What does this fold into?
Amino acid sequence: MKISAVKPFPVWIGHRNQLVVKVETDEGIFGWGESGLSGRELAVAGAIQHFAEFLKGRDPMAIGALWQEVYRSQYFEGGRVLQAALSAIDIALYDIKGKALGVPVYDLLGGKQREHVPTFASTTAHETAAILAQAQTLKSAGWTAIRLFPNFSDQGKIFEPREHLAATARTCIAAREALGGETVLGIDWHHRLSVAEAASFCQKMPSATLDFLEEPIRDETPEAYESLRKLTDVPFAIGEEFSSKWQFLPYIERGIHQYNRLDLCNVGGFTEAMKVAGWSEAHYVDMMPHNPLGPICTAATIHFSAAVANFSWLETRVNPGDLYGGGQSDDVFTRQPRLHGAVYPVDSAPGLGIEIDEKALTREAFKFWEAPHLKRRDGSVTNW
It folds into this structure.
């Protein structure tokens, strides 16, 4: 069997772009993958087109060797664009191998260690009353782990961090009181704060209000996270933007965080993710995968989550109104993972278990979309 084509599909699905990748072989077996670098799909598609030129004619079963060749065959190795491209290709190769051998991907990773994959769900509101109502809805629907987002008094293009700390802290306290002590409760600041701001936020709440603090600051400087670690006892959940095991290295080795928000579609696919998981297990860091993308990402992450020992929860996209907003993609992804309550069953179909209508996939072309460019009140740019 030889790779005959590697095709990137930057397309608009539902309310956002997705970069789906198809790897074809000369025996008719093909695999699907997905890139996780949302908002920069065309850059990743360009990288995939470069890699496709030397991947044609290669053995798709030699996944580890191909991973190393893609990573090391350039002077400027790694980086988020190149790793997002490699992630999509790696996932597709595992899909091919599973189909060729007639086994689910998790069997290629050592076999499943759980029958279903627990998830955490998120509220979407930004005002206290609505946040609490959504959290109660999620709890009633079966979720035992719930993530909040900060209170935003101004949902325009202005974000002044200090203005939201006190109100968000009060909301977290109220959510803990409403949900009880058994519910796992966390919050995602989307790396919008400084060390001082994040510490101030944590200090405005009683200890044990939160079970995890996600992405409070940017990740470029591990030493900054170490400083914050000394100022709060809330466990950290970070790593969704990490693009290699080397980027995880200081966080794992220095004991900075407790949950790895690894993104299979950014870190380098299954090949790299399994190495990070094993390394994390040795340091008692749990995997809490990031999953904001489409059904391919979800399916791949379910297989990964089923196969690793040190697992906590998988992120799932939930609309508290209908409790699952995946219906908009049903005509494209004709076979995809479905939530059963608050868990994903582990699919035993060969490969990823994904089926796609390629004509429907290409029905809506890529649309330029840009994340909000937030500014502070003084006109300076801040993090989105």
